[in-house]
Amino acid sequence: MKLEIDAHLLGLKDPIEFQTTQGNVRAAMVFLRDSAKAAIDVKKSETQSSTTKATDDDLEMMTYLEIQLQTFDKMHDFLVKVLRLNKKQADKLEDVDVDSLQNLAGEVAAKLLLMDKKAPTEADRKSNTD
Fold first, then answer.
1. Which domain holds residue 78?
2. CA-based angle 86:33:111, to the nearest 5?
């Protein structure tokens, strides 16, 4: 099944089409699983920080940053793979704010897993020219 995503965040006027292939659906599941795991790990880290010694602060910070970096990398790789972004489009991901990028990745994953069947509206397409 062909799906579309409004990709104005990447500087594109037209929506990007992508398929519900096994590879893309698997990538969506892996991305969502890893995102959920990262959220759990962050909560565990926050819970542990209140009961551990101050000397563990550096280790906790490193663990937190490692989780976040892995999440960013997986989100980037997921979008590049599924949307088949070229180098210029992939580089544009670096310029998108974190919340918008997470929303885009979540929307792509939701569409792939048939959790969101909403196609980009005409208003979405017109917003691309702004």
1. 2-116
2. 55
pLDDT along the chain (130 residues), means of 10: 88 89 83 84 73 59 79 92 94 84 92 78 64
Identify whether 125 is part of a domain: no
Instruction: List CB contacts of 49: < 8 A, sequence separation 6 or more.
Output: 56, 57, 60
For residues 35 and 20, the answer to whether their CB atoms sit within 8 Å is no
Residue found under tokens 């969502």: 32
Tokens 């099944």 map to which residue? 1
Looking only at Cα atoms, what is the longest distance across the chain?
55
- Cβ atoms within 10 Å of 82's Cβ, excluding its own: 25
Domain membership of residue 90 (yes or no) is: yes
Count of structural domains, the chain? 1
From 120, 80, 98, 105, select the one nearest 28 (Cα to Cα): 105
Question: pTM of this prediction?
Answer: 0.61
